[in-house]
From TrEMBL:
Keywords: Cell membrane, Membrane, Transmembrane, Transmembrane helix. The lineage of its organism: Bacteria, Bacillati, Actinomycetota, Actinomycetes, Kitasatosporales. It is a multi-pass membrane protein. Gene3D superfamilies: MFS general substrate transporter like domains (1.20.1250.20). InterPro entries: MFS (IPR011701), MFS_trans_sf (IPR036259). This is MFS transporter. It is found in: Cell membrane. The chain crosses the membrane at residues 22-48, 54-79, 86-108, 114-141, 153-175, 181-199, 237-259, 265-288, 300-317, 323-341, 362-382, 402-425.
Length: 441
């Protein structure tokens, strides 16, 4: 394919003076992700302890998600127009500054839920710019052959963050409080800043695209139009994008319901083990993906990951025995690298490097566009639809149980069935094979 050749040429013609590798960049991103995840755990505990309000807790989750979605198109243009290394350095600087202010507020007893909301909004904004910058930079810092393995390493590290952050966050919160957690995150941002400052990225992607208009305004609109023209002209990539939009509806609702569901019939210790085992599954699957490069046909990896996630969500909603839940939680964790690494590799191979910032940002915005709606909809779905179905004497109560556990369990199962339905419809209407990929079977 022409797009794949463009990506390959970008690697072969890489200018001299490049310093660092894609793995260095992935390690830097994982470092700051760990700090942010630990801070997230600590801040969530602090907010709940201070207010006891689940509604405020959910509101902060939506506040954290919205800026990243709304600013995605702007972030994509910036990432493609300017030096991506500089974009990442600014992101680390802004995030570190906000953390320093949060630390100061905590030390002076001025921390409030409002400030926590501002912190998450800023961090979401930082993520909107840093994610496409990292994703697009991996393309030009690694060869097409090594790219799946780099993406597998990234998923392994994120699995490690998922496993380690709750344990580390709980320990740090107990030992050094919210002030110490903010300081820990600040150190992680400084470490990431140092690694990125050491690196030297390939240049040249900024020269592509339409000419800059007077004052820069028309150029911004043209940049977005160019990315959309590319995306709308690739029906295979659009199908993949629509697939993720629909699957993410189920995944988002399940993510919101997961902890309350488990806590409705089990202890917080069981929940901690389930979350850790899910992260362990991600680590193991990510390591295998990195070592093998994943399925030769990446769309098969996407479908297999969605299938594992759907089956696991459906089963988790039905089960109550802890040891069986542990096995399913691990299986659910293995779906993450299959989905994410396979999808990322497809997009990196099919989008020219000079367009990746914009296209990846549009892709992320659209793929997660239903996340806030799904988060909000999960509550009435459980309370007004599922709860009446699992009342004493109803047929569903004999399968999912009664009360909160029954209602949330039924909703979790519906999330899994939604994913399975999306897979079936996708396969019935042509599948996810992208241009240049050979059919399987």
């Amino acid at each position: 394919m022409g797009d794949q050749q463009s990506a390959s040429e970008a690697v072969r013609l890489r200018p001299e003076g490049v310093r660092g590798s894609a793995l260095t960049l992935v390690a830097a991103q994982a470092t700051t992700s760990l700090g942010t995840a630990v801070t997230g755990f600590g801040m969530n505990v602090w907010v709940f302890e201070e207010t006891g309000s689940f509604a405020l807790f959910a509101t902060l989750a939506v506040v954290a998600a919205l800026p990243g979605l709304l600013l995605a198109p702007v972030a994509g243009v910036v990432v493609d127009r300017y030096d991506r290394r500089l974009v990442l350095l600014v992101c680390q600087g802004v995030g570190g500054t906000m953390l320093a202010l949060t630390l100061l507020a905590a030390l002076t007893d001025s921390l409030s839920p409002l400030l926590v909301g501002v912190l998450w909004a800023v961090m979401s904004t930082v993520g909107a710019f840093s994610w496409p910058a990292v994703s697009a930079s991996i393309t030009v810092l690694s060869s097409p052959e090594r790219r799946p393995k780099v993406n597998g390493v990234a998923e392994t590290l994120m699995g490690t963050v998922t496993v380690g952050s709750p344990v580390l966050g709980a320990a740090l919160y107990r030992l050094i409080g919210i002030e110490g957690i903010a300081a820990f995150d600040l150190v992680s941002y400084a470490a990431c800043l140092g690694l990125i400052a050491y690196m030297r990225f390939p240049r040249g992607h900024k020269d592509a695209g339409p000419e800059r208009g007077a004052g820069g305004g028309p150029r911004f609109r043209d940049d977005l139009r160019e990315a959309w023209r590319f995306l709308s002209g690739r029906r295979d990539l659009l199908r993949l994008l629509v697939f993720f939009v629909l699957v993410n509806v189920g995944l988002s609702m399940f993510t919101v319901l997961y902890s309350p569901y488990v806590l409705s019939f089990a202890s917080s210790g069981v929940l901690g083990i389930l979350l850790s085992l899910g992260g362990a599954g991600t680590i193991v699957a990510g390591a295998v993906y990195s070592a093998t490069g994943g399925p030769a046909a990446k769309h098969v990896g996407v479908l297999a990951g969605a299938l594992l996630a759907g089956l696991s969500m459906a089963a988790l909603g039905l089960l109550r025995e802890p040891y069986v839940l542990y096995a399913v939680a691990f299986l659910y964790g293995t779906s993450v690298p299959l989905l994410n690494a396979s999808s990322q590799t497809i997009w990196q191979a099919n989008v020219p490097p000079e367009l990746q910032g914009r296209v990846f940002s549009l892709r992320r915005m659209l793929a997660w566009s239903m996340t806030p709606v799904s988060m909000v909809a999960s509550v009435p779905l459980a309370e007004r639809f599922a709860a009446p179905l699992v009342k004493e004497g109803r047929p569903a109560a004999g399968i999912w149980g009664t009360g909160a556990a029954g209602a949330l369990g039924l909703t979790a199962t519906l999330c899994g069935l939604l994913c399975l339905l999306v897979i079936a419809l996708t396969q019935a209407t042509g599948g996810l094979r992208t241009e240049g990929e050979q059919p399987v079977g």
